[in-house]
Amino acid sequence: MKIKIALAQINPLLGDLDKNREKHIEWIEKAIESKADLIVFPELSLTGYSLKDLSMEVAMKYEDEFLAPIYALGKKIDIALGFVEIGEDKNIYNSALFIENGEAKNVYRKIYLPTHGMFQELRFMGRGNKIDTFKTKIGRVSTVICRDLFHPSLLFLSYMQGTDFVLAMSNMPLRGVAGEIPGIEKLVESSLYTYSNFFAEFIVFVNRVGFEDGLGFYGGSMVSSPFGEKIAFAGILDEKLTIAEIDTEEIYRRRQSFPLLREEDINIIKNNLDRIVRGKND
Amino acid sequence: MINLNLNYKLVKEFIVRFIKEEIQSNGFKKGVIGLSGGIDSALTAYLTVDALGNKNTKAILMPYKTSSPESVEDAKLVVKNLKIPYELVDITPIVEPYFNKNQNMDKLRKGNFLARIRMGILFDKAKEFEALVVGTSNKSELMLGYGTWHGDMAASIYPIGDLYKTQIFELARYMNIPEKIIGKKPSADLWPGQTDEEELGARYAELDSVLSLYIDQRKTKEEILKLGYSKQLVDNVLHRIYITQFKRTFPPVAKFSPRTVGIDFLYPHDFKR
Question: Which of the residues A19, A39, A148, B31 has an alpha carbon 20 to 30 A from that of B146?
Answer without folding.
Answer: B31
